[in-house]
Amino acid sequence: DTGVSQDPRHKITKRGQNVTFRCDPISEHNRLYWYRQTLGQGPEFLTYFQNEAQLEKSRLLSDRFSAERPKGSFSTLEIQRTEQGDSAMYLCASQTGNQPQHFGDGTRLSIL
Amino acid sequence: GENVEQHPSTLSVQEGDSAVIKCTYSDSASNYFPWYKQELGKRPQLIIDIRSNVGEKKDQRIAVTLNKTAKHFSLHITETQPEDSAVYFCAASIWGGGNKLTFGTGTQLKVEL
Q1: What does the H/E/C string look like for chain A?
Q2: What is the pLDDT of residue A75?
Q3: Is B36 on the interface with A (CB under 8 A)?
Q4: Is residue A103 a contact partner of residue A92, using CB atoms and an 8 Å limit?
Q5: How many Cβ atoms sit within 10 Å of the Cβ of residue B49?
Q6: Less Cβ around it within 10 Å: N or C end of chain A?
Q7: Contact assignment for B101 to A103 by CB distance below 8 Å
Q8: How does pLDDT run across B3-29, given as a tens digit for each residue?
Q9: DSSP string, chain B
């Protein structure tokens, strides 16, 4: 068990560009969550998957955001046409059964 | 939806003293309440959790209490140490209903020597 892995750790991009983040959950964890955390705030729920099915999306997830988990293993989160307000830490967590959610180190996105 | 409020936002204690952080939640259906510790630049790490079928849970120097009627829960850290310095987040969720976590705004705990 190597824990939840996220890539990249940091992403700097210009406003208007598209970015994609990857999350590799703990193996055999069937649930995968994406959260966004801004400075001085707690993580905010974005979306979650059970296996490959995306079961819930937050209102925070605008049309510019899309997430996938094609084979029920790793997941990607894509942001199109990035805006200044997208600057944040994007956290991934995974969970199974009665176990708590385990978080990755996150991807810090900075929009220039 | 669920709303979680957390107080205080900052807390400074002397080493060896106790620290208490309080949270309230709004959704009476919430039944799972974890606490996470986050050091600067690192991932949130679970330190203790409690389900609504118990009123208190303890793990060494850390304890959590839950009052379902009042919809509030608290984290208690005894004999604080410098390594306890971090941001602590409470959260609430409906276990079995997707388990998405609604977090409080965090408490910056500083343990001074």
Answers
A1: CCCCEEECCEEEECCCCCEEEEEECCCCCCEEEEEEECCCCCCEEEEEEECCEEEEECCCCCCCEEEECCCCCCEEEEECCCCHHHCEEEEEEEECCCCCCEECCCEEEEEC
A2: 98
A3: yes
A4: yes
A5: 18
A6: N
A7: no
A8: 999 999 999 999 999 999 999 999 999
A9: ---EEEE-SEEEEETTS-EEEEEEES-TT--EEEEEEE-TTS--EEEEEEETT-SEEEETTEEEEEETTTTEEEEEE-S--GGG-EEEEEEEB-TTTT---EE---EEEEEE-
Q: Over its length of 113 residues, how does chain B's per-residue pLDDT go in tens digits?
A: 899 999 999 999 999 999 999 999 999 999 999 999 999 989 999 999 999 888 999 999 999 999 999 999 999 999 999 999 999 999 999 987 678 999 999 999 999 99
The type of residue at A102 is: H
Residue A26: both structure tokens together: 């703990």
CA distance A20 to chain B (A): 20
B64: buried, middle or exposed (CB in 10 Å: 19+, 13-18, 0-12)?
A: buried
Place of tokens 């408490």: B107
Average pLDDT taken over every residue of chain A: 94
- Token pair 């199974």 is found at A96
What is the rounded CA–CA span in Å between residue B109 and residue B102?
20
Strand partners, B24: B5, B72
Whether chain A has a CB inside 8 Å of the CB on B96: the answer is no
Alpha-carbon distance A66 to B53, whole Å? 37
Q: How confident is the model at residue A98 (pLDDT cuts 50, 70, 90)?
A: confident
